[in-house]
């Protein structure tokens, strides 16, 4: 159906709500927009209660497009641009099957971020001339995004990142720097509108450089996929969001074809977090022909969740989600299989079938299991090993972003093929741990083939193009990862780093790569066996 | 490890997920008798929620939040108890 048939009020979000409810009720297969610009306001938008992994900010959410328990349905934006006012989730797909979202772009008008050029510098101080017209205010000598102190929207600008103004490149010798926090000395003072003096800053910024300031709050990904099967995202552009570009949570089969995140206006700023991120998904995650630029974190992050065992009985374990951005993700289902691992080595020592799941609250869950829990040590971690995805990431480019190109953690078959990486940090990183992030995913089969790695690690975000981090403890004769092959890639100008720094792998191959780099650092394979390395 | 619900609480705000000490949900003809006990609640949680229930009695107890968002100042009488006191305490 054409969306214009539902344009009966002046409020676009309300019209979209009415259109989606009608399509669901009458099993309509598609909702098509005429090409145009549509502005959505949260006042009469749809609403749901959501816990969004790796974002936090759980609870009631205003939503532009809420697809809830729908099947075989397409949203065709017709090349339109959707602008989102205030604080809201642009698109949520929840409990759906066979959904396609295509031909549209998303822009959150006032994300918790802004940028500007440095017009004056002093020791530990600088004046920032902000681009654009972001609502902001100063209170208690701190800089806030928002309209006034105490409104729901307001949020302090916690961090900044420095980059060149005349080219797409981060300043080489810095990473994210603390800006305003409640308890640090950094102060902000408005000299005139859009001209802010920041003082008592940890680093000396350079005159004429561009500074991006942002809040650490991640309110909502632009597209949030939850508990859904067979989702297709095609010809999708996202300029800004208060979070990630696409977040998939406990979904099966997601295809992203021709996604772009980039900046539209002066300021070099796109998303304030990852481009794409998948948590406890299954089936195949296939990302192709996409362009990831100017976001504030990884192009792809894919992982499961470790929960910590805080109690046990004869037939059950009580587990806790440890990172506040994992609360309420509810990954466990009756009938799943779990492994228990030492919290430092992450090597498993016990397996269970889960016969029942009883959620206590967003933090704690009781898992009833099929045999004695005698061997289980409190404080160790549990991983659900039934659900994990295969991953294909091909024909994409990832450049001019903060941090890494991708974080990979899945037991499935992973192929990273024919991509272009030019990242300020490592292009590919494996970093599972049982502390702080509690992100799981020992890898079993990774093929990295036919990619170009162009001047990766040019800032201080990483020391190796491919970095497989060690666990907190290693067990003799046991290896967390297995079977990584880096074959037929090109490494250009990766001079400040090593090509690889890998740990804890059974089966590591590096061969047939073209190396046009004068690496300052030596490549390392430590606590690895069955290695085959040819430079 | 307390119970939890999603609540919008009139004249309070702060809507959303709430940890709850006693969550009486869809119960009928039920009494909680504290026998003069004092229930102390750490952190921010709802001590009692009675939701879609019928013929519920809460009696003989006191509620005290150990960490409130206010403090009694010197020179004023101290209020020992935070809020609820329904019957018989």
How does this model look, in words?
- The complex is a heterodimer of chains A (535) and B (89).
- With 535 residues, chain A is mainly β.
- Chain A folds into 4 domains: 3-110 and 218-293, Single-stranded right-handed beta-helix, Pectin lyase-like (Pectate Lyase C-like, 3 Solenoid), CATH 2.160.20; 113-214; 304-384, Elongation Factor Tu (Ef-tu), domain 3 (Beta Barrel); 390-533, no CATH class.
- Helices cover 3% and strands 50% of the residues of chain A.
- Chain A contains 1 helix and 45 strands.
- In chain A, strands 14-13-17-8-9-16-15 form a 7-stranded antiparallel β-sheet, with no helix packed on it.
- Chain A is globular and about 65 Å long.
- Chain A starts with 11 loop residues before the first helix and ends with a strand.
- Chain B is an all-beta fold.
- Chain B has one domain (3-65).
- In chain B, the strands form 2 sheets. Chain B has a 3-stranded mixed β-sheet, with no helix packed on it.
- In chain B, strand 1 (3-7) and strand 2 form a beta hairpin.
- Mean pLDDT of chain B is 82; it is low at 75-89.
- Classes of the chains: A mainly beta (535), B mainly beta (89).
- The interface between A and B is small, with 11 and 9 residues.
């Amino acid at each position: 159906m054409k969306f214009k048939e539902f344009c009966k009020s002046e409020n676009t979000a309300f019209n979209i709500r009415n259109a989606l409810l009608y399509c669901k009720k009458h099993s309509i297969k598609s909702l098509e927009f005429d090409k145009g610009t549509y502005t959505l306001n949260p006042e009469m938008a749809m609403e749901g209660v959501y816990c969004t992994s790796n974002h936090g900010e759980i609870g009631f959410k205003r939503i532009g497009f809420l697809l809830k328990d729908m099947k075989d349905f397409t949203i065709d934006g017709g090349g339109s641009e959707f602008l989102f006012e205030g604080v809201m989730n642009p698109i949520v797909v929840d409990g759906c099957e066979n959904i396609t979202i295509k031909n549209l772009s998303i822009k959150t008008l006032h994300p918790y971020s802004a940028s500007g050029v440095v017009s004056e510098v002093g020791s530990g101080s600088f004046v920032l001339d902000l681009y654009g017209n972001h609502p902001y205010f100063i209170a208690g000598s701190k800089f806030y995004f928002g309209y006034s102190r105490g409104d729901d929207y307001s949020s302090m600008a916690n961090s900044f990142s420095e980059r060149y103004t005349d080219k797409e490149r981060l300043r080489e010798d810095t990473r994210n720097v603390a800006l305003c926090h409640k308890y640090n000395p950094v102060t902000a003072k408005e000299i005139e509108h859009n001209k802010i003096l920041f003082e008592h800053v940890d680093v000396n910024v350079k005159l004429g450089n561009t500074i991006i300031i942002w809040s650490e709050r991640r309110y909502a990904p632009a597209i949030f996929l939850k508990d859904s099967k067979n989702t297709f995202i095609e010809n999708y552009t996202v300029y800004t969001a208060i979070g990630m570009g696409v977040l998939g949570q406990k979904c099966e089969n997601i295809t992203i074809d021709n996604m772009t995140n980039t900046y539209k206006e002066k300021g070099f700023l796109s998303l304030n977090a990852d481009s794409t991120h998948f948590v406890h998904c299954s089936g195949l995650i296939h990302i192709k022909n996409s362009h990831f630029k100017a976001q504030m974190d990884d192009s792809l992050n894919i992982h499961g969740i470790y929960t910590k065992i805080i109690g046990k009985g004869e037939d059950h374990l009580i587990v806790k989600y440890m990172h506040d951005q994992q609360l309420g993700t509810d990954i466990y289902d009756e009938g799943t299989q779990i492994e228990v691992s030492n919290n430092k080595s992450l090597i498993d020592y016990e397996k269970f079938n889960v016969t029942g799941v009883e959620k206590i609250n967003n933090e704690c869950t009781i898992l009833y299991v099929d045999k004695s829990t005698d061997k289980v040590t409190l404080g160790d971690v549990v991983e659900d090993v039934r659900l994990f995805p295969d991953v294909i990431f091909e024909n994409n480019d990832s450049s001019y972003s903060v941090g890494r190109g991708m974080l990979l953690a899945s037991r499935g078959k992973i192929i990273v093929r024919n991509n272009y990486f030019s990242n300020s940090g490592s292009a590919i990183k494996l970093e599972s741990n049982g502390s702080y992030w509690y992100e799981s995913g020992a890898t079993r089969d990774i093929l990295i083939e036919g990619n170009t790695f162009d001047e990766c690690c040019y800032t201080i975000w990483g020391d190796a193009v491919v970095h497989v981090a060690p666990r907190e403890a290693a067990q003799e004769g046991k290896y967390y990862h297995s079977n990584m092959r880096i074959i037929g890639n090109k490494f250009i100008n990766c001079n400040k780093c090593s090509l690889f720094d890998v740990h804890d792998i059974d089966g590591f191959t590096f061969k047939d790569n073209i190396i046009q780099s004068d690496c300052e650092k030596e490549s390392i394979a430590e606590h690895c066996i069955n290695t085959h390395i040819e430079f | 490890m307390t119970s939890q619900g999603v609540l919008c609480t009139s004249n309070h705000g702060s809507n959303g997920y709430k940890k709850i000490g006693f969550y009486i949900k869809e119960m009928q003809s039920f009494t909680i008798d504290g026998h003069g006990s004092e229930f102390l609640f750490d952190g921010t949680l709802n001590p009692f929620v009675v939701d879609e229930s019928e013929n519920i009695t809460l009696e003989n107890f006191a509620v005290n939040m150990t960490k409130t968002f206010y403090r009694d100042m010197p020179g004023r009488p101290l209020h020992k108890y935070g809020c609820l006191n329904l019957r018989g305490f």
